[in-house]
Amino acid sequence: MGSIAWGVLHGWSMANPWSGSAVWSLQLIAMAWLVRRLSQSATPWAACQSSALFAIAWFASSLWWLSISMHEYGGLHAVVTALAVLALCCLLASFYAGVGVAFVWLKSPKNTSPLQDAALFAALWLLAELARGTVLTGLPWNAIGYAHIDSPLVGAAPWVGVYGLSALAAFIAALFVLTQSCLLKIGIVLLLCVKTLLAPSPQANLDKPLQANAPQSLTVRLLQGNIPQNEKFDSTTGVGTALAWYKTELLRAVDDKVDLVVAPETALPLLPQQLPTGYWPSLSDALTGSAQTAALTGIPLGSMVDGYTNSVIGWRALSSQPYRYDKHHLVPFGEFIPPTFRWFTNLMRIPLGDFNRGDLNQPSFAHAGERFAINICYEDLFGEELAQRFIDPSLAPTVFVNVSNMGWFGSGMAIDQHLNISRMRAIEFNRPMLRATNTGATVIINHRGQVTHSLERTTRGTLTGTVEGQSKLTPYANWASRYGLQPLWAMACAWVALVWLIKRQSRRP
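Below the sequence we write its predicted structure tokens.
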């Protein structure tokens, strides 16, 4: 039961169910418990059981909201839904069960080399996180680094990214448990406490505008339609509401002369050719005719012949051809159906299908001296893919824009977790992030990962604020744009291989 209880707490550390904030201290404590349990395991099988139960509970407590889309909106029976979510949790946990087995097999006898063992645990954990984030298109949601979005360790994110931050957290937790030195334990605690006291509050600027005279400061407006998910694609209710409200707000932004207005993912839930007569031309003419205001809005594009894309269309003054971004990293079961799983999607009453993928490195939307890099829904989980847009510094984005619809997953934990993910991307790349969503969290995040403007979730409204683009590249943006995650894979594999060689040599007579 200890593995399950601590696994649940570990899951809540990414975004606790009471306030939605990440609790980095809880993450370290839960992981320290796991390391202690593994270090005391008599056999690899015992370690496998402990780490597997810990990880299953971790994922079940932090990904349970997937059931909302399948049960409430997909019509799956509650039992089938629970089994589907549990199966996913078990699949993800298998990576961490391997961590337990390998750690017990390779660690030094009687923990005689705590530094080596702590680094071994961190390397194994890093490999599990990397594998989870890439195998079968990857699901890196709730990598442990996200629990440290407000922690003293987050300063490492612009250097090593969230995966490197995860390895650092694993190393600190393991070293605290494995070392016998009381001075080192006290030093770790003091370092974390002192850095916490000295760090500014990440929410200090909540709802306070940036300086009006800041260089390259642009006025932006983010739209949140709050269309109920069960009505969103209903032609008699949600579709009409969305078309009327978003068009009104897009045109109002032109009248108010904001620099950029952004509507969320599939804000216009019909293909352009399905829109009411005159709707698309009148909207396009008004937005391209504005001397100041540019607009980005989510909309599906395509046809039966060419296939469909989940896209964002951009309009700006004097542009004869609208800007277009097509989503690259598609959601399994939601936007593409994995082979042999058609039977599962057929069980649900959700408009699912196979979408075409956009290119990985698509051009940014250029306006008012800034380059806005679009990402749709959970594309902002994949920092290594966003990094590809920084390979040419002269064309690198200055602002990120995420458009999402989290209405499938309720109004709580999923939204909080996604907000922390977006904040981490802002810190990794030193770029502000604009988030326009259907139900929340619609926010403006500055390049330090701080929420500067926020709109109450599950309400219909607009958020107007300012954003200041950034051009300086972080070390992470530099190396990840060239090599992706390969350096992290290489370092983790190299350390595990070195420990294996050391252990092999020690067994020789």
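The chain has two domains: 2-199+485-507, 218-473.
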